[in-house]
């Protein structure tokens, strides 16, 4: 399996790359090849006096490359120019990546209402599973908030096709997962649940599958606003990563905020693994 690891060469990105437990978790789920990607924004001009942007980034990536190769991965580096989320997505699709990884320091309540971060834009548009690796906010030398990426998973489902696709990720996550919490938030009309079907029974069927793989599993049934309830469960159990499926968006929908998956990406305290719809 291949992964794209996007970095802006900040202290937050360095925390993602140099945390041994994170790299170990990636190895456990079958990642063998990592593509380091850094993007020079298109509004930064190569001809600015004294500014060798490509050279400086290539030298910085070489240090990261040595760390990741030392952990046993094959590594390729990419220094590209353009809009960050578009170039990261393009490289992931070109190499056939199984996962894209991007660090995020999270947002303040006001900033949550603003479109613009690479992580949020990738959450809207990525066609490969996106791991948003949460980094400490407001410190000079940030660290990963929850280092064992897939050790304790929170899986949120509305029983839709997209949620089922996210659950399929356990086929490889199970090699690094010890515990899982399955949560379903009941709404007046569950999109993926036939009328009269018991959601607890569906969750118990998923539990049986995970426990066959040796994963200790618990169930949470909630009522209320889906994003709020899922985030309450996250606060209670403190999973290392929350796993959720994305419905995808129309061209117009990409300009708006408000979906459950986007709320979770923006507001979760820990890592988030977002699995997009199957490409037609």
UniProtKB/TrEMBL annotation:
It comes from the Archaea. Pfam families: Usp. Gene3D superfamilies: 3.40.50.12370. Residues 4-132, 150-276 form the UspA domain. Belongs to the universal stress protein A family. This is Universal stress protein. It comes from Natronosalvus rutilus.
């Amino acid at each position: 399996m291949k992964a794209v690891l996007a970095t802006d060469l900040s202290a937050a990105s360095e925390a993602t790359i140099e945390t041994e437990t994170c790299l170990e978790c990636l190895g456990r789920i079958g990642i063998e090849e990592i593509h380091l990607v850094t993007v020079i924004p298109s509004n930064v001009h190569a001809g600015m006096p004294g500014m060798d942007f490509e050279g400086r980034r290539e030298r910085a990536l070489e240090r990261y490359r040595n760390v990741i190769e030392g952990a046993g991965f094959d590594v390729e580096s990419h220094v590209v120019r353009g809009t960050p989320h578009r170039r990261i997505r393009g490289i992931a699709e070109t190499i056939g990546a199984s996962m894209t990884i991007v660090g995020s320091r999270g947002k303040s309540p006001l900033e949550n209402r603003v479109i613009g971060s690479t992580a949020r834009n990738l959450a809207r548009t990525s066609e490969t599973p996106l791991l948003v690796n949460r980094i400490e906010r407001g410190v000079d030398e940030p660290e990963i908030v929850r280092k064992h990426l897939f050790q304790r998973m929170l899986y949120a489902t509305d029983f839709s096709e997209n949620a089922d696709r996210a659950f399929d990720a356990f086929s490889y996550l199970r090699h690094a997962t010890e515990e899982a919490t399955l949560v379903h938030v009941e709404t007046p009309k569950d999109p993926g649940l036939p009328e009269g079907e018991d959601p607890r029974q569906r969750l118990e069927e998923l539990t049986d599958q995970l426990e066959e793989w040796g994963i200790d599993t618990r169930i949470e049934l909630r009522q209320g606003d889906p994003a709020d309830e899922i985030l309450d469960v996250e606060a209670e159990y403190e999973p290392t990563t929350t796993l959720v499926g994305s419905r995808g968006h129309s061209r117009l929908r990409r300009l708006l905020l408000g979906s459950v998956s986007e709320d979770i990406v923006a507001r979760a305290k820990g890592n988030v693994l977002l699995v997009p719809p199957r490409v037609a």
